[in-house]
Amino acid sequence: MIERDRNDDLRMYVAETAARQAGERALDYFRDADLTRQSKGLQDFVSDADRAVEALISEIILAAFPDDAIVGEEGGTRHGTDEYLWAVDPIDGTTVFLDGLPGWCVSIAVIKGDAVEIGVVHDPCAGEIFTARRGAGAFLNGRPLPKIRSRDISSGMVGIGYSRKADPEAFGSFLTALLENGGNFYRNGSAASMLAQVAAGRLVGCYEPHLSAWDCLAGLLLIEETGGEALDFEMAGMLAQGGPVLGAAPGGFDQLLKIIPAR
After folding, report:
1. Could you tell me which of 205, 221, 206 has the C-alpha nearest to residue 151?
2. What angle do CA 90, 93, 96 make, to 5 degrees?
3. Which of 54, 109, 133, 205 has a Cα-to-Cα distance from 226 of 20 to 30 A?
4. Are 53 and 85 part of one and the same domain?
5. pTM of structure
6. What are 195-238's pLDDT values in tens digits?
7. Cα–Cα nearest to 210, from 177, 169, 174, 238
């Protein structure tokens, strides 16, 4: 048990170290005016920055834990022999990143079985790093985040995102219902970042009809560890194909649950 605890402490350290170094590398690319994008699909882009930053993160992880598995947004999937899986999004919010806008971030989650044990979301432009470990609370730049207070959706902004895998008409109906119920919306192009803002008490909630595991698992742990609520999901399905994501402050969660499209 002591050895396992020490290994988990080290995974927390490695996750934060990898996120910080990845953020520094991504910032170098962010400042490069000649960085070009490639299209993976409609409104879905990738660049050399995404691939290089993901490779850096994988290198740092495997140097410490060569038997762990890794799944990354840019195809850096590696099977392991240990029970741990790392879900990595090297630049969550690639579109805004390539357009020279802030809001993008690095997201790293460590999964054991059906549970996310560690979550790190790093926003290099803002100089903020959110960290969480299951059962140990959540932190912003090393300082404990307070528990999220109960909130009404009319008391602030709800982070939203849209995927081409979702029904645009149903998503439009959600936005209409949100506005009709006194809410308002915010979007910065990064689900991981907006979920972290919920944990920090800056947003009432965050909803997106379809996200991949690497986009959301770290942010959802942050919300859970600060007393917020999240939509249930089955881990194997989320890892394989993604799904709808809702995380919010108490009170606001129930209100949003009533107006999101049926799953």
Report:
1. 205
2. 130
3. 54
4. yes
5. 0.92
6. 999 999 999 999 999 999 999 999 999 999 999 999 999 999 99
7. 238
